[in-house]
Amino acid sequence: MRFLIQISIFICLCSSSDLSFSVLKSSRPQRQTTKAVSSSYPSIIDPSSLQQITDDLSILARLVNGISLHQGLSDGSSKSDDVIAELLNIESSDTVRETIGMTIDTNGISAKLDTFINDVGKLGSNPLTDSSEVKEEIEKLESIKSNADDLKSGTETVLGKSFIETIKKIVGAYEPFITLKDFEAIVQHLKLINSYENPTDNSKVIASYIDAFKKIKEKGASFRQAMEDFEKYKTHNVLKKFWEIKGKYTVLDPISKISKIGQWYQTNWKMLSSLSTKMSMLKKDSNVLIPLAKQNKLYSEISESLTTLIKLTNALFSSKQSAKALTEGFPNGPSDIALIRKDLEGSWLKENIADGKDVSKLSSMLELIEKLSELLLKPREELNSFGKTRKNTIDSTNGTASALKVLAEDGRVLSDNNNLDGSVQTLTGAMTGLQEIKGSPAFKKFDEVYDYVAFISNNVSNFENAFEEMDRIGYKDISDAIEKITLIAQTITEKTDVTNIEVNEAIEQMMKIDGFGNLVKLAEIAGEKLKPLLSNEFRALVKKKPDWNSIPSVQKSLQGTGLPEALGKLKNAKINLESINKMLSYGIKVREVQKSEIQLIKTLLTFIQNVKAGMKDAKDVAGAKPKARRNSDGELKVLDNSKSLSIDLGKGVNLLRKLLTVYTKKMLLTVAADYPNNVHRVIQSLPAMKTVWTDLNLKKLKEFPAEVEKLDKYAEEVKDKKDLLQVGSIFGKASEIQGVPIDNKLLKEQVVPTLQKSSDPDVKKSASTFSDLSELELDYSKHSVRFKAASLSLNSLREYFDEIFGIVRSPSAESQQIVEKEVKNGVSGETLLYAGLGTAVLVVVVAAIVYFCYKCQRDRKYYRRLNDPETWVLLSYTRENQPEKLGSGTCSLAYDYIVRDNYGAFVKCLKNGGYADAKVQSHKQANSLLHEAVLRDKPRFVEALIKAGATRETLNHDRKTPLELAKELKKKRCIKIFKKYEKRRFKVILPEPFPKHDYLIDVDRDIPLEEHYHSDFFKKFRQYQALQDKRPSHYVVKTDKDNVLHVKEHHLSMIFHPSMLMSHRWLKACLDNSSKISDNHEYRVTKMMFRKKIYNTVLEIKDFINRQNVPYLHGCGMSYKDHVKYKEWSLYHKLVPQLGIYDGTGEFPYMNYRHGHSFHRDDVARNIFLYRPEEEAEVQIAFKDVWIQNPDFAFMSTDDFIHFLLSFKIKSKKIKEIEYKNKKNGMIKPGGQKDKAKKKKKIEESNTSMSEPDSGALGTTSRTPTSRTPDSRTPRSTTPNSRSPGSYVQDSMTQNTPTSRTPGMTSRR
């Protein structure tokens, strides 16, 4: 077929070359003349010619766009809302519809705001200037009023007297016979001996045993004496005194409360003494505020209206970023339309489109849009005028709306609550007559007393617990065991030359001694829990005697102050703190509203009203269809394809203007290119600019003005031509300009900020130049199609205007003679020959087209299924891909055939849809079938997998490709197979399409049974309901109106699960139309939101999981804050196996220490510690010195961990290297990359439109590789080299493997 097509093309080319030879021959002298004329112009000229021809073509673009708009509005193909939005440079026509349809009464809001500000003005100044302090003291009183009884009992002189007398008798602490350092050394040596298993000849190990013997010989006696004291702890002369005071220090708690409250009272007495006066002032102020509070509904309505108006105003100033579809010829909006009337009165249109005839007849075609333009000038002026003060006005309106919302909420509480008077009265009565504390009670010294006894008591309790634990083990034979061990150690160490055999025998003798095992246990407990007793810490504190005389001073401190009595009155009284707090804050907030802010809001209201009126008038005019334009014969004159023609011509003219701007600023290009090397180095250090800011492109930057200069010379030749096509040939000439392949967006978004932050003053100074350069369009290679489209549009336009003005264009004299000769002589033989050849070629071409269409249709169906994530979800249900248990991990059926060397069954399995890239994996390993075939040296299986489309560059858990593994293991036969198919690629085998009755559907627990047609759906389609022991193929979750899933913790296990996520609206759609069960694309969840950040990674995650890639966090370990609270972390225990995380590390820091970084993220350690966000400060303090600075550990709150997972980024140097290697070897086709780039751009635009302005979630898209493992031949593969045309790119990153699937699912045959 290819041969036939080539022959056909060759014949056509030969025929066309013969037929056109004479024409080409006659055209040569004319081209040579043109070249000679153009060469006579100077090399540098002023761009006035290009300016003139651009202005002339702008006249035509305006006229054509006007005709197009008139036609579109007349026949209804163009919507007036879209036209108004484009003319006013507003991004969305929905904004126009919302503005016109706005029902908010702006005049009414203005009147209500005037009334409100007048009421506020009558309040006067706030009588409670220190309301925040008043609030704090009332809250403190409320919190301590329950201590009234303790304050009374704490004054009793006998309180704690017996306890204090007992503790005073303690004059010293236990003094051990051995130091803590020596005790710990012996404990370590005993543990070393106890860990002995087999005889050893290792010199280092033998030396450590000999050191242990020496220490035991030296300190054995002291160690035995200490252990004997521990055995007699209950009767020991010194220790038994401490048991008498254990836990009894709490008798001093009432006095401690007096001390704490007394110190607080002493600090805040002035405020407390005036509290009754403050309450009276609050009561008086509340009488004025309550009437305002009762207007809370009014404030709520105004707040909601202002919020709506703010959103609408922001939308009105959302400049159009997407391409214009109706008004490309009017770059300046309505003012450009107003110029058309002057254009018709000028000479250019008359000479170039009407052949000198009157063009005023075109005026009738433009009456509608001229009226539209006139009406839109006022809204445009309003937008321009208001835009100067928009930020301040919006900020003031936003602040007032928020304040009114709070006032409405607080006002509702105050107006509904009648307990304020009672609370104020209670506080006033209780706090009257308070007196200051007399003298200087020894509060600080008493605190030292309390801390002293609490420390001793707590330590004694710990000691007793340790002794009791040691008692449970028992001290039987302990003393004898220590003596025997010491004797053996002494015997060994006294020898001058000890052999290894003697050391091993000595250890074995020690381990056979009765009581040795218990001795080691006792020593470990004592060394760990009796450290304060064995060190000087406890003994030193006991010797420090506090000032016991401070106790009576503190007990009497509150007498005569009236505070205990006041707390007694408040104890049983109900004080409505919320009402008091609301009233205090209400008084502040209501006075914060400024009159100047209200005036700004009224400006906003006037602006909205004027814009609405202008838009409405314009829409009314545009909606009234004008009379159809007719020619003299009464036939309707219609410009076919008017929209596309006006867009093509308008874009071409606008690009000419951009070229003109480049030329006028040509010195800017030269300056930027000639900057010193330090500036260029900074720019080249940016990853995005490394391959862009090259010497070659800098050279092109300098030469760019010369290209535009040549265009200007050509413009000089054709600008005064009367033929429209000759004038329009400037577009064809402009299409030859390539410019510089530098994206001005990169300059603006990355280069300029980087230069501005530089510490080098010269580099920083260059930022302004590059800021100006970023405003220019530099890359015109992508615009050649636009120029050509503009050029082609002129042919249709000339035909249209020729018909309008009745212009008949005759062919040239030479062409006329040829036609007359052929008519006279009849059809020649040569013509018949050409006709026969043309017929043959036509037959061949038609046959080729039919075959090509068939092939395209077949491939389209294949790639549609291959690119559909649902295909891979359902594929995992087939018998060939169902995961089977293998140790602690899983494998596929094909792996079993490799192990059993069953080649026939293996090939059949692959033909039936067995996934060639299936993994054999657990939390320790992840090998593809190719890796396993290489490991077992089975070249036949390697060849079968390659032909089934297996990814040859996929990485295993050791980051090795199958070929690298084969070379490392020297599997020559496998290496030979890889080289044999090195240049060939094969499609992935897919089984027959899956029927929809194989679906298993489950619904999220957040969706109630009777909500969203959940119950009705399963009544009608019971066969689709997934039982508890079945993994669902589709999981239904609740989404918002934009089909975005608001992620909660329990969603994570389903997000990182092979099942498809579906919106709850799918259930209703299926009830209405059962075909929607399988035709469900529009109901698939593709976006997620967590903490106001939107992520578009759902489909990448599903694709990653079902392609069975190495789990995202493979090889990582996870531990938790308070891991013993298993239920609290149960959701994460369910999730982490799906991520490939080892979830058995337990409490941090007692975790299985792992060095290095995770598989897909070089910037993430393999040891992850998880905690709740509210525990962050505690974690930072607890682990600051030991763990935070250790790069082998990653600390994450649960929120950070969820953001980390959902953003799904890949940062792996190894994967990057393989991607680069594949690109270098030409394994990635350019077409596929273009498709990826387009889809990535589309996704980034979607992210920008949906994200919050300050969220940062999607406003800037991370540049992460689309791959997980290298060079997959399957579309959407998570490997570096995907060759399918449907491959897409987003902020990817995911995990999961078959380990997340439950074995034993219902298979599909």
List its traits.
13 strands, single chain, three-stranded parallel beta sheet, mainly alpha, disordered C terminus, 59% helix, three-stranded mixed beta sheet, transmembrane, 1309 residues, disordered N terminus, 59 helices, WSN, Ankyrin_rpt-contain_sf
Characterization of this structure:
The protein is mainly alpha-helical. The chain has a three-stranded parallel β-sheet. Helix 7 (131-144) packs antiparallel against helix 31 and helix 46 runs parallel beside helix 48. The protein starts with a helix and ends in a 59-residue tail after the last helix. Mean pLDDT is 77; it is low at 1-45, 626-636, 812-828 and 1224-1309.
Short synopsis of the structure:
The protein is mainly alpha-helical. Helix content is 59%, strand content 4%. Strands 5-6-8 form a three-stranded parallel beta sheet.
Write the layout of secondary structure elements.
Layout lengths: L1 H18 L1 H18 L9 H28 L4 H8 L5 H8 L5 H16 L9 H14 L3 H6 L7 H8 L11 H15 L8 H29 L7 H5 L9 H15 L1 H5 L1 H19 L2 H21 L17 H5 L1 H6 L2 H5 L14 H21 L2 H27 L3 H11 L12 H31 L4 H17 L5 H13 L3 H14 L1 H4 L1 H8 L6 H6 L7 H9 L5 H16 L2 H29 L18 H23 L1 H8 L3 H8 L10 H24 L5 H11 L9 H14 L3 H5 L1 H7 L10 H22 L7 H13 L3 H39 L1 H7 L8 E3 L2 E3 L1 H7 L3 H9 L7 E3 L4 E3 H7 L3 H9 L14 H8 L2 H9 L20 E3 L10 H7 L13 E4 L6 E3 L5 H4 L4 E4 L1 H8 L14 E4 L2 E3 L2 H9 L10 E4 L9 H6 L31 E5 L4 H13 L4 E5 H10 L5 H12 L5 H21 L59
Parallel strand pairs: 5-6, 6-8, 7-9, 11-12, 12-13
Antiparallel strand pairs: 1-2, 3-4, 9-10
Helix pairs in contact: 1-43, 3-33, 3-36, 4-5, 6-32, 7-31, 10-11, 10-26, 11-24, 11-25, 13-23, 15-21, 15-22, 15-31, 16-21, 20-32, 21-31, 21-32, 23-26, 24-25, 33-36, 33-41, 34-36, 34-40, 36-37, 37-41, 38-40, 44-54, 45-46, 46-48, 47-48, 47-49, 48-50, 51-53
